[in-house]
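Q: My collaborator sent me two sequences in one message, no labels, and asked for predicted structures for both. Can we handle them in order? The first one she listed is below.
A: Yes, handling them in the order given. First sequence, followed by its structure tokens:
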Amino acid sequence: MLSLGIIIGNRDFFPDSLVEKARTEIIDVFAKLKLKPILLDSTDTKLGGVETYKEAQKCADLFKAHREEIVGVLVLLPNFGDEKGVADTLKLTGLNVPVLVQAYPDELTKMNVVNRRDSWCGKISVCNNLYQYGIKYSLTSQHVSSPSEAVFQKDLLDFVAVCRVVKGLRNVRIGAVGARPGAFNTVRYSEKILQRNGITVTTVDLSEILGKANKLTIDDTVVKQHLEAINAYAPKGKTPNEAMIQIAKLDVVLKEFMEEYALDATAIQCWTSLQQNYGCNVCTSMSIMSENMLPSACEVDVTGTLSMYAMQLASGSPSALVDWNNNYADDPDKCVLFHCGNWAKSFLPDISIGTAPILGTTVGVENTYGALDGRTPAMPLTYGRISTDDPKGIIKAYIGEGELTNDPLSTFGNRAVAQISDLQGLMKYVCRNGFEHHVVMNASKTAAILEEALSNYMGWEVYKH
């Protein structure tokens, strides 16, 4: 259960009763949405509202006591509210978390002195002060809305998703397993720019991983356990038992590496060292990790797995790294998304363990067992990509929404057909701005959440298609 701090603004020449009603209402809404409210008691200040500097101090002290659990702050304005009280509270907390500003609507039949709110105007004043203080904030989709309304509750849940993304990205730890494949300049990135943004990369040489895996045997209990888990995850098809054991041993070592360094995600060298020096693909392990919300990208695409993690945080569901791979006949707004076979199981209802035919032409198909085969059916689509732009010294991203379709597609590997409005314009943007051939897909509609989190709070350069 995620926790939000709540500031209820008040202003003494507006009706106090509105503050008391707002406090009761928002507590009920939080219970309904399974959120934990951190707010002043009605006896801590006048009805639990914040107006004076002393009340701001009390509210800030409460938030500080819960600083480890508060992921964001909701500002409620049941009346005009005191803009300084709200801004001072946020400044004193030093929390640096997302802030959502809400304002109650007035009723045309209750515009007298006893009932009039003027929150429409008060919200502008509060935002003006937050802007002056340098405090980042989010807005509801409608300028005024009541907490009991569905439109506000959707705004609140979207805001919570923004908070998840921001908190996650500011502390994410990514494991880079092996060296970037020599032929893949496209996945270059800057560790230093990422670190400046709170994103830590832990590296390990692929030889260390393979060396540990080669010391394991099927007689090791942990290998047997992982083999059972892999067999339960996906049908092995024609994959030989020896290859399944190889996959399981590698899976054991990767899990140990992630646990040792408390990693949230990984980017793994695959093409072509694993096949040549170990004799299998790591796709199945990557799929299992991604399905279990520990995203994994191939070709040491660190910013690719960072993109997977951001989308996962926004939606609460697994992401997949894909290639912008092929045109779809002559339809300008459709294309084929593809990868050898490492997508999370959620995208592959017909999943099976097989080989990677393209890679097999150079390393031998027998050395590519572990790649997954499966077609992604129609589902919602959010796509996007985070990248470090070293010449500019920034992190940049593009995001958008579309649909995955059931259009016919006769090929192998992990595959899907995407339909995106003005796809040709998007491809021009991707090419002109030096983005990678890898993109990330998620079965959701979360582009607005990602834009708010990445642009407003992370301060990155974001293009929303």
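Q: And the one she listed second?
A: Here it is, processed independently of the first:
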Amino acid sequence: MAECKNQNSCGAKRPATGETDENLISKKPTAMISSLLEDPAAAIANTRHEFGEHGGVNMSIEASATFTVMEPETMQRLFAGELGPDRDFFIYSRHFNPTVLNLSRQIAALEGTAAAYCTASGMSAIAAVFLQLLASGDHVVAARTLYGGTHALLAHFLPRTSNITTSFVDISDLEMVEKAIVEGKTKVLYFEAIANPTLVVANIPELCRIGHEKGLTVVVDNTFAPMVLSPARLGADVVVHSISKFISGGADIIAGAVCGPTKLVNSMMDLLQGGLMLLGPTMNAKVAFELSERIPHLSLRMKEHCRRAAVFAERMKKLGLKVIYPGLPDHPQHQLLKSIGNSEYGFGGILCLDMGTEERANKLMNVLQNTTQFGFIAVSLGYYETLMSCSGSSTSSELSGKDKELAGISPGLVRMSIGYMGTLEQKWSQFEKALTKVQNLGLPYCNNI
């Protein structure tokens, strides 16, 4: 049998390729040439590759909940923080797991941050970040338009349980954002890179400038735009993800991630004060393995999602439909996204149709799913089939009527996550047939009818 790599690793392993880790789940950005920092796909390709235990091209799944040591004294050193994952020592998978650690490295590379930690869900990642950065009496400035679960966390749960309050603002109004910041009390500026569901694009560089001038931590949810936008490279301090969406791509996994500086992520894993450590939103190693195998083709998937969404949006607009898509020249933030987005990745894989009323929206979706098979009536996004839902009565239902109005969420707003199953022309034909069917039912679909 081969000699042990160290006292905590009892099997021979083929060495990983790529750079070595400096601290916990961090990577060395200095090991990457500047051009790699500009393309997420190149950055991912530059991360270390974990081979399997017996030399397999895919890494092994470390399914153990707990890990053995060769000497009793080693256990004490592990809990004292003298030994850790940076030297291939592990204690317990709620703390760190080798398979989850590898996925975290990939996600950190994707977002261009020094570190990342993968969690059991997107909401657990978001909640842990807030609870780590904020204390009782603190204040948050957040975008009016947020995923319903995040809005409920900020508007209802945190005020009740932690005395943490939030002011919701129009994130496009930089003056409003600045005025909402309370000196000495506001600690976090939070927004989505591309808003769910209205597709408002945040001016990340300017918002980061405002936040940093006021001493705030800027946290950005990039779930809608992996590859398309890189908030950390534009100045954000922390980036959160629901990996369940585009990054997973299969609508079969619930997962999340926190990406940021090594110091922050390490603090969240502190034995006494760490939000991730103590709340325990642990990702299963088998889930991490599956996700890590999907990361290499994320760039290809995102390019096709975005390409088809752009084509469909242009064609829908020509038909007279009220379509919202950042890739259309008349979108208020079209030029902004064009200037801050990563080249070659387009304008996102999601578009919205405003049918005016929920009744019209539901009738259109019913025909699209049950008559022409264009897509599925389902929440979530990033699936290979098109998913569609009426946001006001589904993923944004946590917002009050007034909050929906302020957020710009129409009762008939249909959010479509455009898939890549089948050919583009095949899917467009299915959409056109649905519109014809809707017209035959006496339901006007054009905004000018």
